[in-house]
Design goal:
The chain is mainly beta and 154 residues long. It contains no helices and 14 strands.
């Protein structure tokens, strides 16, 4: 089983304390490279609209942008985690198998495809193939927020 035990001290009432354990799940076989970021952006509204396609981006408050490369060895995984903002992920090589904390069914994305990770959604990406999996992500997160949040296994 994957996991690192973290103990937290929670104060229930004055003079009393409660201890609980959370099992974080670190990645295995993953090399993460920050290609760019954090790059600060002011609030913005941007739109592209043609008869064939519409895209709308709207932020309130400042944001940080990251471009991140993850290379995952065969059998490796990212560990359970979430992000405080939206991630647009492209699969450059291999096949990404994504699992969500609230949905046990796998979602497979082959090279040349991509997917979007919603803010706060707990997920794990696994390389179930026999060759290296390379992902490149564009992340738009709240200014000053931590880019990745380790989460306990669901």
């Amino acid at each position: 089983a994957l996991g690192i035990a973290l103990s937290l001290l929670l104060v229930a009432t004055p003079g009393q304390a409660v201890t609980t354990t959370i099992a974080a799940t670190p990645g295995q076989g993953v090399t993460t490279t920050i290609l760019s970021g954090p790059v600060a952006l002011d609030a913005f509204h941007a739109m592209s609209n043609t008869p064939e396609h519409t895209a709308v981006f709207n932020t309130r408050g400042r944001s940080d942008v990251y471009i991140v490369q993850n290379v995952i060895a065969p059998g490796g995984h990212t560990g359970w985690h979430s992000h405080p903002g939206v991630s647009f992920v492209t699969v450059r090589s291999g096949a990404a198998t994504e699992y969500h904390g609230d949905d046990p069914s796998p979602h497979v994305y082959p090279a040349g495809s991509g997917f979007v990770e919603e803010a706060g959604r707990v997920h794990l990406i696994r390389n179930e193939g026999t060759t290296a999996l390379e992902l490149v992500a564009f992340q738009l997160i709240p200014f000053g927020a931590v880019r990745r949040i380790d989460e306990p296994a669901p």
